[in-house]
Amino acid sequence: MSLYGALLSGVSALNANSQAMGVISDNISNLNTTGYKGNIALFQTLVSSDSPDRYTPGGVLAKPRALVDKAGILQSTSSATDLALSGNGFFVVAAPNDPTSRIYTRAGSFTTDKDGNLVNAAGYRLLGMAADTTGKLPASANSASLVNVNLASASGAPQATTSIKLAANLKPNQTVNPAATGAAIGAMAAYANTGTGLVPDFERSITVYDTLGVPRTLNMAFAKTSVANQWRAEVYSVPGGATTGANGLVASGTVTFNGDGTFLSTTLASPLSVQWQTVGASFAPQAPQAIALSFGAAGGRDGLTQVQGDSALRSATVDGFAPGSLVGVSVDKDGIISGKFSNGATRTLYRLPVATFTNANGLSSATGNVYTETQYSGAPTVNYANTGASASVTASALEGSTVDLASEFSNMITTQRAYSAASKIITTSDDMLDELIRIKR
Length: 441
Hints:
Layout: H1 2-29, E1 39-45, E2 60-66, E3 74-76, E4 83-86, E5 91-95, E6 98-105, E7 111-112, E8 118-119, E9 125-130, E10 147-148, E11 163-169, H2 187-194, E12 202-209, E13 215-224, E14 230-237, E15 249-257, E16 263-266, E17 272-274, E18 289-294, E19 304-305, E20 312-318, E21 326-331, E22 336-341, E23 346-351, E24 353-356, E25 364-366, E26 370-372, E27 381-384, E28 392-395, E29 397-399, H3 405-440
């Protein structure tokens, strides 16, 4: 009968508004939760009869809906590993006890755990694509190839010197060195390491690194010959026993300039072939190391010159470095995590992927402010950050909760009033039923 239907309709209203109050309370509780996505309660009617002649009350049903696709305001922080997404998508993380799991979150408050993994406040491990030892990344992100972003395993591996670019001036009115013409090959190297031989008119030392990352010293020496605009040049190690050449000689030749003082040519072999003696007498020499030597472009003034002024070194650009330890990281908008090392080197370590969904609101929420894939969300599309529709990464920032406190309090008031009104339906129906029972008396 209709009175019982009204009573049950009131009960359903109490249940629906109770659920709505639960949604509101959860939203308010997570006002300061990083990356939290607010929920709303959607009410829908329950129809128990479609007869046009008789109305049967059905009531109401509340269904919660997560507004996962709503973005929060970014808030700056002082930590380089606090990350926020600007745009569409989620970080890909794995559960602490299941490294093969793929879970999704916008909560980017990542710090290192005891093993060096980047984890968020709930302990979920950040996943990324790892670069190789040279810093080269895979061409694209692949969900199956994601690994833990681990900073403890990052090391500044040594890099052997592969190029030297020398910029220097040789004095144009330098007195001809009488010993330069006809002197034996390696005469300047012999003088540097034994004290007998050809005294160079200009000499400078350059630090390079061998294949083990050991710093070595190469000298560039020049002596003026009797040929116009020509200098004798040698490259040798100091001490001489550091390389396999006699007195450390690496290369010998000449350098010639144009009449206007610009560099013309050199007979020094390039790349240099340097075979270092490994530290320790019981070890064999290292394999020959190729080092490209550049004195600048022919006809240019970016390298060696012979213009007015004393002989002087302007600059020596040398690559390579010794081993180093990680001292810091940086993350750019493309999600590339770069390591900064104590040897001054910077190397790409990882690149972060971003997972996007056709229906992000269809994801299933889980404890820890994370989401899992469902049939309603569709399968994730995993791409590198800041490519296609994927969000870019903002470092030293966190995404705030999407909860608006004023709106939640307003909803709380209307929900409370609706609950009170529903209770009146029950009490009124009860009074009417009581009146009906009294008819028999």
